[in-house]
Design brief:
Two copies of one chain form a homodimer.
Chain A: H1 4-22, H2 33-40, H3 44-57, E1 60-63, E2 67-70, H4 72-78, H5 82-102, E3 105-112, E4 115-122, E5 138-140, H6 145-152, H7 156-165, H8 178-191, E6 194-197, E7 204-212, E8 218-227, H9 237-256
Antiparallel strand pairs in A: 1-2, 3-4, 3-8, 4-5, 6-7, 7-8
Helix pairs in contact in A: 1-2, 2-3, 5-9, 6-8
GO biological process, one term (chains A, B): negative regulation of DNA-templated transcription
Protein name (chains A, B): IclR family transcriptional regulator
Domain IclR-ED (chains A, B): 73-257
């Protein structure tokens, strides 16, 4: 057992390491040591030392212009996050089937604290791929059907924090004010799905439904989204709910079972 | 600037943190503190302290049975890894198109040191989704068309290491021995694609081609794989090479450009 001053130092180095990871986001995917130092508030020498260590393990990689970016080795470890990998494994075949059946776009998301995160996205013909809803990106919990489903099944503390913080208008249809949002969230929970009609974006409408894990709690959300010119989003409810049920059943099976066993050798089924 | 003993301690804490990440793999997605301690070789008290810190940041999450798993917050940061996110963004629409056109399975992979890693996979009707080629999993660089393409464009040091280490038979068709593998790799590089006919698996055959980044170097590999009953894998070469060219062009554009700009608010185009 180490003494408490070493404990403290350990914690602070872990903190610094995580601070370095936290400097990277979708707008800053490659940074110099000086930029990391400025963004993290760590001294340049400390930053340089930590960056070198993270580089040699593969948590960071060299990028053009003396910059560093997140390394594939870190992605490899992080892709084991069960909330990502299990939801994705359970959802993937059903999402692709729904996309094929409806020709609309299908999205998978989960909540992380007070935001949603896109876990997976497949674009249908009706919704051209435009680089939005980037996998790994965050989105607000109130301005889309996906967000509203995740919010409806969030802890009361997360809901309360959002109600007191208030919403920021995304379009003219964004639900504003604590009381209307509370009502909306209760409706979504009671009904079992959310509908947005041109709410997050003028020309798109969609529906979203919760995915239940093995223990019954909501762990993710699946959404079906298309051009608002293709009719009412309510027409999408039935196939979406059937898909959400299939994914929930698959997930319960996965969570009850051991992770997929390795094939002989490694994974060499593909080409 | 800190003194060298503190430098040394800093580095060792970063090492310990990364050691904890390294305990998780596809067979061990949820671990107790004792299991992490055993697997990392760190004392239980140190492990407990570091795990608590990683938990509070979201790099780890609680799982059932007093276990811990990789957290969604770490996945969020790691999904920024350009070798994953850029390749995927450039490849996704073209992979889906190829899958639709051929009804076969399409895979995206990259090399990490001496192994391949599956970055993305879409199953066609001819190849039922069976949980293999799990995104994030490693595979050997010699026993499949994807591996052979990645090996053909690897640094000579990586190739040399593999030639001297030797291959392990995956099926009766695995290329064995340094000399035949060298010849194969040279052929793949010269020809611009690799073919495997029931090599990684009895009932599947496929083709793989390199994806070039903006600077011309090979950064990833795309493969098209289907049932060997559906004819010779050579029939798949033409559509695959066209797709690889489209993805390479897209990637060069992305690497020359800034990352996709954020929409107003966050990403709220989806539902």
């Amino acid at each position: 057992m180490q003494n408490s001053s070493v404990d403290h130092s350990d914690r602070s180095v872990v903190d610094r390491t995580l601070k370095i990871f936290g400097c990277f986001n979708v707008r800053n995917t490659a940074l110099t040591v000086s930029e990391i130092s400025r963004s993290s508030g760590l001294p340049v020498a400390t930053t340089y030392r930590l960056v070198s260590k993270l580089l040699s393990w593969g948590a960071l990689e060299r990028a053009a212009g003396n910059k560093y970016s997140i390394g594939l080795r870190l992605w490899e470890v992080a892709s084991l996050a069960p909330r990502h990998s299990m939801s994705r494994t359970a959802a993937l075949p059903h999402m692709l089937e729904l996309q094929k059946e409806t020709n609309s776009s299908v999205f998978l998301s989960a909540r992380e604290e007070g935001d949603g995160i896109w876990l997976e996205s497949f674009w249908g013909d009706g919704v051209p791929y435009d680089g939005s809803c980037i996998v790994g990106n965050r989105f607000p919990l109130y301005a889309s059907a996906s967000g509203q489903v995740l919010l409806a099944h969030a802890d009361p503390a997360v809901q309360g924090e959002l109600y007191s913080r208030g919403t920021r208008a995304v379009t003219g249809r964004t639900v504003a004010g604590s009381l209307p949002l509370r009502k909306l969230v209760n409706d979504v929970k009671r009904r079992g799905y959310a509908v947005d009609d041109c709410e997050p974006c003028d020309d798109l409408s969609g529906v979203a439904a919760p995915i239940h894990g093995g223990c019954g709690s909501v762990v993710a959300c699946v959404a079906l989204c298309g051009s608002s010119a293709d009719g009412s989003p309510h027409q999408r409810v039935k196939p979406l709910l059937a898909t959400a049920r299939r994914i929930s059943r698959e997930l319960a099976k996965l969570q009850g079972a051991r992770p997929p066993s390795q094939r002989r050798g490694l994974d060499h089924r593909g080409s």
